[in-house]
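Researcher: I've been going back and forth with a colleague about how Sulfotransferase domain-containing protein might be arranged in three dimensions. Neither of us has a model we trust, so I'd like an independent prediction. The organism is Phaeodactylibacter xiamenensis, in case that matters for your notes. Sequence below.
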Amino acid sequence: MHGHLPYRSFLAHYHHPEAKFITFMRDPVERVLSNFRYYRKMKAARLKTGKTIRHHYDLETFIELKKRQNVMARFLDGLELTDLFFLGLQEQFGQDVRLLSNKLLWELPETAFQIKKNPTRPTDETDKAIRQRIAALNQADIQLYNRAVALKASGYWQ
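Model: Here is an independent structure prediction for Sulfotransferase domain-containing protein. You can compare it with whatever you and your colleague have in mind.
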């Protein structure tokens, strides 16, 4: 199985001793901004096709929504990072996919190691105050991410 699946509410039901849990994380501030760009892209696509949308969130409103905060911590709730077979970082995607494919003895085509870039236009998210607010609202994700980075640096998932 793969996808954006929260462990406790979905995957825990399938937790088998031989199951291998793998995840990729990304810098929490960048994750929120990417999520906003995706929301904005989907909103524009719906409007273009004449469909209605319920909400018109700007970035400042979007980041204040509880469901958009600490998503990584909520998705991994019930698992310890050390329970994971592998954890990769979006910031070193190609390198980590190579490492994972070696661990699993997979032979993957070169395209598997490339990052799919989001084609949406940048927003005003580079504003320092916005980034600081996102960080303040996502402390659980920041702590989790920092632990993951430290474990990776120690060679835990080699």
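Researcher: What would you highlight for our discussion?
Model: I'd start with this: The chain has one domain: 11-153. After that, consider the following. The radius of gyration is 17 Å.
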